[in-house]
Amino acid sequence: MKKRVVVGLSGGVDSSVAAYLLKEQGYEVIGMFMKNWHDDSVTISKECPWLDDSNDAMIVAQHLGIPFQAIDLSQQYKERIVDYMFAEYQQGRTPNPDVLCNREIKFDIFLNAALKLGADYVATGHYARRDEIERNGQKIYRLLAGKDPNKDQSYFLCQLTQQQLSKALFPVGELLKPEVREIAKKAGLATANKKDSQGLCFVGKVHLPEFLQQRLEPKKGKAIVIPDDAVIYSNGQSLDDLVHLTQPYTYSPELGTVVGEHNGAHYYTIGQRKGLNIGGQAKPLFVIGTDTVQNIIYMGNGEDHPGLYRKGLFIPNEDEHWIREDLKLASGESRQYLARIRYRQSLEACTLYKREEGLYIVFNRPQKAITPGQFAAWYDGDELIGSGVIS
């Protein structure tokens, strides 16, 4: 009897080819489009309208001769992703909705809907790979980087569990992007030459300040430049330094010079350069800190400003997640890994130190724009071992 797979057809070329490959491999394939957003007022029209994507997904399904349906998950998306985003920005943190979308929507609500249809698996167009190993008589699922180094999307899946991975297939993970487009052309898929979508998961390309202004009111505040020598940067790496090495820098208004105004500290993120609209400086300005209580943004001159760089980060126990639960560190243990703190960042050598209060990650070299609210993910070679929310 054929195994049944529900493919999340997004209307893009990657998920279209995923469905095509699975059908070629002999699976019983069902295409399902997730509608997760109704408010078109904050999207850039024509960039990623959900209606066009839904139609493209349906055309691909018809071409492949597979059943197709759309599922409206907009209420769950609002509750689990959008509300969380607003709450995080309100606190001066920068969330990653795409990581959450995979954990909370694609591989939870969507997965459960697929299982109700009798599916054995769900599949997506992610550039990632999954395999199985056996350890002490137990089956363990591994999440591996996609073969295409320019498109690897394993980072976005860093919060998945063993249970979720056991039901997941990533058919394009073994391919390079040009190969995917070539397969789509040969198969006559309507999405073969469609541009990759940009922007928030399922929302489309948004004007983020306008999106945030739906709930976070604009509020004028001071923009302050902090001189280089006001940042006390620790380069130590003894265990006594763990807290000092990993805590975010804090600034006081009297340390710097007021150079302008902004519309709300909650609209800005560490490392941001664009949208500051403040001139007259010798070097480009970068955001090095935000204070949403006093409504102040702190900036530094140039991308070599010490306020942009830190040696480490901290993940509280409640935000620590191990895909490989069998490799989870016990308190007092440490281990060397490779890690990244944002999508597309190259992997950086680091050491993980587990303590009673949480997990400390100390990098071999300082990292630029470590941002609270974002996810750090650690790897052993091309296997993603675990992740956590940066404190």
Brief synopsis:
This protein has 391 residues and is α/β, with parallel strands linked by helices. 23% of the residues lie in helices and 29% in strands.
What's the shape? globular
Largest sheet: 9 strands, antiparallel
The number of helical elements comes to: 8
Please identify the structural class as seen in this structure. Answer: alpha/beta
How would you describe what is shown here?
The chain has two domains: 4-212, Rossmann fold, CATH 3.40.50; 217-391, Beta Barrel (Elongation Factor Tu (Ef-tu), domain 3). The chain is 23% helix and 29% strand. The protein is built from eight helices and 18 strands. It has helices at 13-24, 50-64, 74-90, 97-116, 162-166, 177-186, 208-212, 242-246, and strands spanning 4-8, 28-35, 68-72, 121-123, 128-135, 138-145, 168-169, 221-225, 257-262, 285-291, 296-301, 309-316, 320-322, 334-340, 348-355, 358-368, 375-380, 383-389. The strands form three sheets. Strands 5, 6, 12, 13, 14, 15, 16, 17 and 18 form a nine-stranded antiparallel beta sheet that branches. A five-stranded parallel beta sheet has the order 3-2-1-4-7, with helices on both faces. The chain is globular, with a radius of gyration of 22 Å. It starts with a strand and ends with a strand.
